[in-house]
Design goal:
Layout: E1 2-6, E2 12-14, E3 22-26, H1 30-39, H2 44-51, E4 58-62, E5 65-75, E6 84-94, E7 97-102, H3 107-119, H4 126-161, H5 165-195, H6 203-269, H7 283-304
Parallel strand pairs: 3-7
Antiparallel strand pairs: 1-2, 1-3, 4-5, 5-6, 6-7
Length: 308
Amino acid sequence: MRTYWNFNKNLRQEDVWAPGQWVQVTCPVEDDVKFLIKDMGMPDYFLSDIADTEERARFDFDEGWLMIIVRIPHLKNISSRSPYTTIPLGVVIKGDKIITICHQETRIMVDFINHQTRRAEGFIDATDLVFRLFLSASVWYLKYLKQVNGMIEKAKKNLDRQIDNQDLVSLSRLQDSLTYFATSIRGNENLLSKLKYRLPVDDLDAELIEDVNIEMQQARETTQIYANILDSTMDTYANIINNNMNKVMKLLTSLNMIVMLPTLIASLFGMNLVNGMESSKWGFVVAIVISVLVTIAGWLYFRRRQWL
């Protein structure tokens, strides 16, 4: 699906493309690919690069085309292996041609367009659009990080009541998401530091770049803080699980030793040996009494040692 946006003074959707307009392509189909390659003259290999979900943040020049890949945050599914991840967003510029390509529908682009529509100012040029995309991505990293923190706190409350595998798995999934965030944010920061020397930057762009740097730094530091909290939390609950396991093993071992004592007495009296009580009518009673006394003594001993 592709959408044409006229961003002169305001962001307006157009029915057909005209030079100087922004072409937004989302989840491109065969018709969109033909339009980009044949009508716009865009390099076909870059479309394959954007389709690769693992493609790193970078930029490249080829036959006058400036091709940029920005890593943006994306919420897949709360129940998925890693609910929060990052995906590539392609920005392609050549003269009066401005194209963005993303192979998944994301909340960030919907919010970006709504925000620019409310601003009623549009974009000054392609450089302004690129840096505002960076700013929007940084803001959404922070939004998703707040949601991640809320999920961590919820899981911790559940684990404080009862250690459950589902909550531990949820924390493990969030660890993966934070790793993706940290890697992508660092890549975007490196990309931004290079682009500001490659694109024509005026005073307004310089102020915008400073805002982007601040947001990115905050997102990177917040990601690191939450990652450290999550690591510490996982280590804490791992130690708790190990401690509980040690207590269970100690209890089972103690009970096994206590049960062994009356078994030992019964075995001694049951041997085919002379013990002086073969013909006594009190032999069985004496064996039972000794077994009970030895069991009680063992129980008291283990209780005193706090093994039970």
